[in-house]
Design a protein that fits this description.
263 residues, Uracil-DNA_glycosylase-like, UDG_Type-4/5, 6 strands, 6-stranded mixed β-sheet, globular, alpha/beta, Uracil-DNA Glycosylase, subunit E, nucleotidyltransferase activity, iron
Amino acid sequence: MTMQPLDTAAAESLLAFWSDAGVDACFGDAPVDRTHVAPPPAVKAVAKATASVVASPDVADAASDARRLAAGAETLEALGQAVAQFEGCPLTGMGARQAVFGRGNPQGAVLVIGEAPGAEEDERGEPFVGQAGLMLDRMLKEAGLEGQAYLTNTVFWRPPGNRPPTAAEQASCAPFLERALALMKPKAVLLLGGAAAKAVLGTDESIMRLRGHWKEWRPAEGGGVTAPALPSFHPAFLLRTPMAKKAAWADMLALATRLGADG
């Protein structure tokens, strides 16, 4: 029997699809008694990780420092400068070239939040400037939202190997995002990808369940400012999984429709 060559790109795309769908385990060789009521290992792992983030004095201290720096910023430009001074995020010591905060219209109607800078963003110092960013710009333009968005991420330094940011890394940077919301007062927030949606909304639900459903972002440190938030697929996921583009485009149109209805 002749083995077919492995299509690495297709395999990676399929694995990424199932990962974003929330699948975190495969069938094993031995049967499992699924009538047992104990939480599955994945749930226990998430709970343990969440508890450690909340209890970690390092994360609490970093968030406190971030909150102090963010509070002193009266514009998004000043907030970006405060981010550049911040050393509390663990990612600052992991090889990133520079802080990558935001780009776009500070007076825009939409705050777009992704997960983390990639290689091109790390080099150029702006978020969403690679292939995924070009796709996002095209989608915003085609939806009639060109020039109406400000783009940022949940963390502002590139994670090693472009891995997703950890909960601790996101928690240390969260005060800057909350300050951005307070300063910008957007009419809507677009959350791109599971890492961003989970961090901002404080949920463990997968992006497959969250996308397309409007939520309310009410940050504790947002100065009383709230905004409707729409989770959707990250454009990097769309590059790997073209079949998801239709759903993402529907989300973009829903965003444009809501902004149009709000005037």
